[in-house]
Amino acid sequence: MSAHDHGHDHDHGSGSHGTMGSYMIGFGLSVLLTAIPFWLVMNQTFANPQVTAFVIMGFAMVQIIVHMIYFLHMNTRSEGGWSMMALLFTLVLVVITLSGSMWVMYHLNNNMMPHMEHDMSQMP
Amino acid sequence: MATRSAIDPAFLDNDGNPLFHLGEDPHHPEGSSTALGFWIYLMSDCLIFACLFAIYAVLGGNYAAGPGPRDLFDLNLVALNTAMLLFSSITYGFAMLAMEKDKVGATQAWLAITGLFGLAFLSIELYEFAHLIHEGATPQRSGFLSAFFALVGTHGLHVTFGIIWLVTLMVQVGQKGLIAANQRRLMCLSMFWHFLDVIWIGVFTFVYLMGMLR
Fold first, then answer.
1. Coil, helix or strand for A75?
2. pLDDT over 90 at A117, yes or no
3. Domain B69-213: which CATH class?
4. What ipTM does the predicted assembly reach?
């Protein structure tokens, strides 16, 4: 939707497509935020894998926000705030789905036969 | 009738009968709500991926004494794949910038480059899948592999349809030029394409990188 065909579309359409500068900033940041986690895992920089896991999760979260801002042009004003509203609602559902599933299914294998994995590995 | 005369004339039709709906539909310019509607579609798509990620989180450790992520994944290949998708994202951005300047040729060229990067991504992914299946790591092998193929396969399917959509739009732009309707379609595909890149961030972090840490 370009600015010149409907005057008032510019306000509540997702009118702003960004500029060359903003795309390049977004691209630079996302290259950096992708390369560092790969480098951390490939070189095993941290001795403790748990630390690496938390660090790369942090990088992923920051990169998602960078993509939202620089590539998807999210802001609190577009569509009169409704796209941000939809995004926040979706985020709540995503968090409930992910954390809820992992919490409820945490004991999934508790009642399995002991040493079952060992037995299975002896099978042809 | 007495009750009728009490009604505001704006809510009566020409014969004096009360109206139970708006006399005239409020005017919205064509396509003014497309962006929000498409955004809400993407959010629903996001929930599909959230469910698949949840399945992977729950079943990702169930190897059934079969191969695990460390035995299967090649991070160099995944890094290359990620680069392809990132490049396709920025080239789509360039296509949108060219579209804003009404440059049909440049828009088409950047769209074509985006499509090629998308095809490269798909080819690498299919090569990886073929390699896994050849090694016996099929979706039937274990819960981990079922969840892996469901999640990564669904993303790949989205990219496939994105490329089909992209080619369709290139034909439409070729025929009609950058008319308002085509600009709107390109904007929707832009959101779709960048959204797939956002999902891929989750895939390479949670599936591939964290898989290598297990």
1. coil
2. no
3. mainly alpha
4. 0.85
